[in-house]
Amino acid sequence: MKIIDLINKKKRSAELTKEEIEFFIDGFVKGQIPDYQASAFLMSIWFNGMNNKETSLLTNAMVSSGDTMDLSFIKGKTVDKHSTGGVGDKLSLTVSPIIASLGISLAKMSGRGLGHTGGTIDKLEAIEGLNTELTKEQFNKTIQETGMVIAGQTANLVPADKKLYALRDVTGTVDSIPLIASSIMSKKIASGANSIVLDVKVGSGAFMKTIDEARELASVMVSIGESLGRKTIAVLSNMDQPIGRYVGNRLEVLEAYELLSGEYEEDLYELTVEISKQLLISTGDFTEDQAVKAIEESLASGKALQTFKRFLEAQGGKVDSIFNEKHKFKIAVKSPRDGYISKIDSEEVGMASLMLGAGRENKDSVINHATGVEIHKKIGNKVSAGDTLFTLYTDTENINEISDRLLNATVINEERVEKTNSILEVVK
């Protein structure tokens, strides 16, 4: 078998076989297929796509390229969640302790942020002492003790994805549904959970800008999960404004803690309940009504908050450090006029947070865990001239460019607009 034959076959939109896909992944990971031929193959997929069968085969071949997590030592059901990336998305920190407090184990491998979207590992590392680079023994011990664990991806988990993504990033083939879906799902399948819930973001702050694009990606990922023996559900959620009140690492951990304590923004609460509900339903042990009741009871009783604290401490974190403000300045960005908020460009808010030091321009950037943006007004809110729209948590007073960026990202109209729905659709 030769890679040039696979390139020509996909160039003609023909369906690839299991053996051909495994040949490509195996050869590429081992360095037997050079980058220039792999690039041509990826570009042929970009132009002509893959059907669901091919995408599932690609995903499975990627899973088999490295280690997989064995969660069979855990009694009962195991679940996992994934977000396609958003601004102010701290849902792993609100959902996971709720699920764990209800006796369902959640084992999660997470990543770091890049560009305008944040990463769960960066948020957790804002907590003094917390360790996300766990050994297998530490990983297993944490989930057995607390019912949840969130750690960085192990070096040999889906090495095919690491190599493929690096190549896609420099060859213009990132935005391919089959390649996106196989990248996400290979890591989820390799992580070993029985069921998976995918939070697919839609809108200005998301990779998928339209609901049609998001629906297509969600449908492909659900198909992959089901074909590989995992109960899989996708929730399409609105990313046309940042989630909750804070964007920035320590600030988002603080907001997660506040929600678990009973103080929250409505959109963050709605998303937390929906993702938690779908995770419980995915186990087959809860109806929709039972799931919602269990979630509400976990929050009201404080069980979810106590689980969160135990989890942080189990991974070495000092819980009290969440409340330590280490930024130097808090600077208000005020409304220039009266009216109603009709738009907040999420990507621009994410970029403002990055400019404050809370995000990465490239993978080698050093982030500031203390800085970020507080959002005081959301879509549909009334504002008066001089009202504070944003507060910047910053280590510099030179914030004119950032302030202007946030004001340009915010549209204020004379007429009231309806608040946006957080949940757009569920794909099963």
UniProtKB/TrEMBL annotation:
Keywords: Glycosyltransferase, Transferase. It catalyses: 2'-deoxyuridine + phosphate = 2-deoxy-alpha-D-ribose 1-phosphate + uracil; thymidine + phosphate = 2-deoxy-alpha-D-ribose 1-phosphate + thymine; uridine + phosphate = alpha-D-ribose 1-phosphate + uracil. The keyword Glycosyltransferase applies. SMART domains: PYNP_C. InterPro entries: Glycosyl_Trfase_fam3 (IPR000312), Glycosyl_Trfase_fam3_N_dom (IPR017459), Glycosyl_Trfase_fam3_N_dom_sf (IPR036320), Nuc_phospho_transferase (IPR035902), PYNP-like_C_sf (IPR036566), PYNP_C (IPR013102), Pyrmidine_PPas_bac/euk (IPR018090), Pyrmidine_PPase_CS (IPR017872). One of its GO terms (molecular function) is thymidine phosphorylase activity. PROSITE patterns: THYMID_PHOSPHORYLASE (PS00647). Its EC number is 2.4.2.2. One of its GO terms (cellular component) is cytosol. Its cofactor is K(+). It is an enzyme of class 2 (transferase). Residues 340-413 form the Pyrimidine nucleoside phosphorylase C-terminal domain. One of its GO terms (biological process) is pyrimidine nucleobase metabolic process. Homodimer. Catalyzes phosphorolysis of the pyrimidine nucleosides uridine, thymidine and 2'-deoxyuridine with the formation of the corresponding pyrimidine base and ribose-1-phosphate. Belongs to the thymidine/pyrimidine-nucleoside phosphorylase family. This is Pyrimidine-nucleoside phosphorylase. It comes from Jeotgalibacillus soli.
